[in-house]
């Protein structure tokens, strides 16, 4: 391992440290002949010496913020091979736990020569950190001491947990395909549905410990896990310890070598590996865990499901992520039928906007039989709204035979036991009775009101008198003149966990509130009231003017922050929308919102245009709502006439 002087940064790192988008860094590389030359990497992904980048930013007056943990990360990445990075971060996690448990031990060692420090680190970890027993497989060299000292410095400014979370976050950005990380909202949901507060929780495929951390955060008394990958296990143990848990974690293959044989837990939560054909089919044909049938070779997820059930106490729950296809694939139909007959399967919930397979991801909730006769199963298609899941689940638990709202059905088990045993939520929710006769009259009233409102708000614009055309400018020219600034969030920004809401590209496109979450970090942009946020040129177009503060800018969005004394944000948003529409109609893939043209007008005239743009947008929303109501009314009418709940109105003549 080399010294911190060998720290390198990628273009994305430079963008994050300088608080700009990647496009700005690319522009600097083209425009400035003195921009640092690559010190490593490849032609497609060059790496630059951190010291050279700092000097260049300072020389050109570019503000930047490099914290101790930034320096630690860059030094660590610059001195470690990619395949070593996870292991080194895991050991640093153990060292951070030592700093919390026995700071005096490090204080006595810190000023010793590098060879002494390097030779003492393993003994220090083993004596202070018994949880790392079996996880220490390497001996640090003298050069590693530099990274250790940088870690201690970073922990003086931020907490040990914050430093380690930062390193893990950066590591996952670099190696996003090497580890499957469950989004924090999914982890919290799984813990909530199992009711694991105060209970003992097991995750037999714990990865980096995300599910166990969620269990500990909600009050689990004991968290236990097993992980086949030593690097991930080391990271998980350090992560859990730094967040206040006392985990029991074993390294090994859960299916072939169960570390907790015969042990039962109140809750088991698991995100197993999908599609793993070498799961042990030939070795485990007579295994006692296959209570509901021998899993086919092509259905490894059903092996994991039964492994989880084998560790659940009677009356306890398991929450397992499954590929959506597992609900209907033909080879698994016998096991699905047996789970239904035994009353074990309680719910299948299709999750929105996340998944490791092309067909999506479902959450299966199961209950180990305890003598209670279950007759219904909850099938919920929550792909459109994840916020409904908890309320519908608890409504189902309270009264399994009741009609459920929205895209959910409580289905009798006997009605699912056909030749296919297809448990796909979308299939059964689509067949939910519409009650057309009851719904038709209220729908007609809503459409009548919407149509009246639409007529009353019909926009009115006038044609100008003949004369000279109005002067125009571009977004780029306005930015150059200081009337607005254009920014982007870091492309690798994660939006699945943190204390502040994140406005995502999907939120802007669907015109909904922010759905992501993140914490403040270098390069993260806090949005303000009056900011204009737009999708970059692509298949979809959308623009929004923010009416409140308090959220963060998500990736894949452009932020236009105006000087309100020179530019009306709604005026700008209107012309950005025009540029997006022109790109869509022309089919051009080279459109650039920086080149979008708009009229050059004084502020008072801009306000008039802004009001007109807002009126048109409001009318469009009303028209869309009326169209949706009309479509719903027509569907209810046809359905009601077909099932006899409606009949033609008699003529008054």
Automatic annotation (TrEMBL):
GO annotation terms (biological process): DNA restriction-modification system; methylation
An example molecular function term from Gene Ontology annotations: DNA binding
Pfam families per UniProt: N6_Mtase
SUPFAM superfamilies (alphabetical): S-adenosyl-L-methionine-dependent methyltransferases
Organism superkingdom: Bacteria
Keyword line: Methyltransferase, Restriction system, Transferase
DNA methylase adenine-specific domain residues: 157-384
InterPro entries (alphabetical): DNA_methylase_A-5, DNA_methylase_N6_adenine_CS, SAM-dependent_MTases_sf, Type-I_RE_MTase_Subunit
PANTHER family linked: TYPE I RESTRICTION ENZYME HINDI METHYLASE SUBUNIT (PTHR42998:SF1), TYPE I RESTRICTION ENZYME HINDVIIP M PROTEIN-RELATED (PTHR42998)
Protein name, entry field: SAM-dependent methyltransferase
């Amino acid at each position: 391992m080399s010294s911190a002087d060998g720290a390198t940064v990628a273009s994305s790192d430079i963008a994050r440290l300088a608080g700009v988008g990647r496009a700005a860094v690319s522009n600097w590389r083209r425009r400035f002949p003195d921009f640092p030359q690559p010190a490593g990497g490849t032609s497609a992904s060059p790496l630059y010496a951190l010291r050279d980048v700092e000097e260049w930013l300072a020389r050109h007056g570019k503000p930047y913020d490099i914290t101790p943990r930034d320096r630690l990360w860059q030094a660590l990445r610059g001195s470690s091979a990619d395949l070593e990075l996870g292991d080194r971060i895991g050991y640093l996690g153990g060292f951070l736990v030592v700093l919390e448990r026995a700071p005096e031990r490090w204080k006595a060692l810190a000023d010793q020569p590098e060879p002494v420090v390097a030779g003492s680190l393993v003994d220090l970890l083993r004596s202070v950190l018994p949880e790392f027993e079996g996880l220490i497989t390497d001996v640090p060299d003298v050069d590693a001491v530099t990274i250790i000292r940088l870690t201690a410095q970073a922990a003086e400014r931020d907490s040990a947990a914050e430093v380690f979370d930062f390193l893990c976050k950066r590591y996952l950005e670099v190696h996003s395909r090497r580890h499957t990380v469950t989004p924090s909202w999914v982890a919290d949901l799984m813990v909530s549905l199992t009711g694991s507060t105060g209970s003992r929780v097991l995750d037999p495929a714990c990865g980096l410990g995300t599910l166990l951390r969620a269990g500990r955060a909600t009050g689990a008394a004991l968290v236990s896990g097993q992980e086949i990958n030593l690097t991930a296990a080391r990271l998980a143990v350090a992560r859990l310890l730094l967040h206040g848990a006392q985990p029991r974690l074993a390294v090994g293959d859960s299916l072939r070598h169960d570390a907790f044989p015969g042990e039962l837990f109140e809750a088991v939560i698991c995100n197993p590996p999908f599609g793993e054909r070498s799961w042990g089919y030939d070795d485990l044909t007579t295994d006692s865990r296959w209570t509901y049938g021998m899993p086919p070779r092509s259905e490894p997820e059903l092996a994991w499901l039964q492994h989880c059930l084998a560790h659940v106490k009677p009356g306890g729950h398991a929450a397992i992520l499954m590929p959506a296809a597992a609900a209907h694939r033909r080879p698994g139909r016998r096991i699905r039928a047996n789970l239904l007959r035994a009353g074990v399967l309680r719910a299948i919930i299709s999750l929105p906007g996340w998944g490791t397979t092309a067909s999506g991801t479902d959450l299966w909730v199961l209950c180990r039989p305890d003598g209670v006769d279950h007759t219904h199963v909850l099938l919920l298609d929550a792909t459109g709204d994840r916020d409904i899941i908890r309320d519908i689940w608890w409504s189902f638990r309270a009264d399994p035979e009741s009609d459920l709202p929205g895209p959910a059905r409580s289905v009798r088990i006997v009605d699912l036991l056909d030749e296919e045993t297809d448990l796909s939520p979308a299939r059964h929710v689509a067949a939910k009775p519409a009650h057309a006769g009851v719904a038709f009259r209220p729908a007609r009233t809503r459409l009548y009101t919407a149509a009246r409102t639409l007529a009353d708000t019909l926009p009115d614009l006038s044609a100008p008198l003949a004369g000279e055309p109005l002067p125009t400018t571009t977004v780029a020219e306005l930015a150059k003149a200081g009337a607005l600034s254009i920014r982007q969030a870091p492309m690798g920004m994660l939006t699945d966990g943190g204390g502040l809401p994140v406005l995502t590209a999907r939120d802007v496109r669907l015109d909904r509130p922010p759905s992501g979450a993140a914490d403040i970090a270098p390069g993260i942009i806090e949005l303000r009231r009056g900011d204009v946020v737009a999708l970059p040129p692509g298949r979809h177009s959308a623009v929004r003017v923010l009416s409140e503060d308090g959220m963060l800018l998500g990736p894949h969005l452009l932020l236009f922050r105006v000087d309100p004394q020179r530019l009306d944000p709604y005026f700008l948003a209107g012309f950005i929308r025009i540029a997006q529409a022109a790109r869509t109609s022309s089919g051009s893939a080279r459109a650039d919102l920086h080149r979008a043209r708009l009229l050059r007008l004084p502020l008072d005239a801009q306000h008039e245009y802004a009001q007109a743009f807002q009126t048109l947008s409001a009318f469009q929303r009303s028209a869309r709502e009326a169209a949706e109501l009309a479509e719903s009314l027509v569907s209810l009418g046809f359905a009601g006439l077909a099932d006899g709940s409606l009949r033609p109105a008699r003529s008054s003549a």
